[in-house]
Amino acid sequence: MFTTVLMIEKPLVPTDVDLVTTLHGAEEVSFVVLMQPRGRQDRLLRALDDVALGELEDAVHEADVPEGAEALPPARLALEHALKSLRDAGAQAVGRLVESHPLDALSSVVEETGADEVIVLTSPHLVEEFFHRDWASRARHRVGVPVLRLFAHAE
Fold it and tell me: Which residues, 6+ apart, have CB-to-CB distance to 93 below 8 Å?
């Protein structure tokens, strides 16, 4: 069985589930899902990404989206939804919220599970990607397994 650590930051939509569950053809896949709640420290970067992508309305409303402790309940729901969706697609799936530094949590989970790969499934983060400060770029130097960066689909 192939073990994939799947890092997400928002609920999975059916297209995302189909994408990650069919990457390895007929091979059975087991997922360990890490859900990263929104943090306050990322607000400026998210607003800059929104502006760069031409999503000015989203940039204006960045402060309206729950962050920090307020982001935990929606993150828990998103994680539960992701796990159910992956299981409904025939995959094994377990998961947890990331309440510490995301890359530390990722490294620990890869080591604990003997994961074969990491998939980082997030919205575009142009500023971080340009400077190679996004999760996928940084994870490639830390986890010791292949890291694939995919863009999550809109709801």
Answer: 30, 31, 32, 33, 82, 83, 86, 87
SS3 assignment, position 149: strand
DSSP string covering 81-105: HHHHHHHHTT-EEEEEE--S-HHHH
Which tens digit of pLDDT belongs to each residue from 3-12? 999 999 888 9
Where in the chain does DSSP place strands (E)?
2-8, 29-35, 92-97, 117-122, 147-151
**Contact indicator for 30, 3 with CB cutoff of 8 Å:** yes
Please indicate, yes or no, whether the overall pTM of this predicted structure exceeds 0.85: no
Phi, psi of 46 (to 5 degrees): -65, -40
The label of the residue with tokens 């949590």 reads 105
pLDDT digits (tens, 9 = 90+) for 34-87: 998 865 446 545 555 555 555 545 544 445 555 566 667 888 999 999 999 999
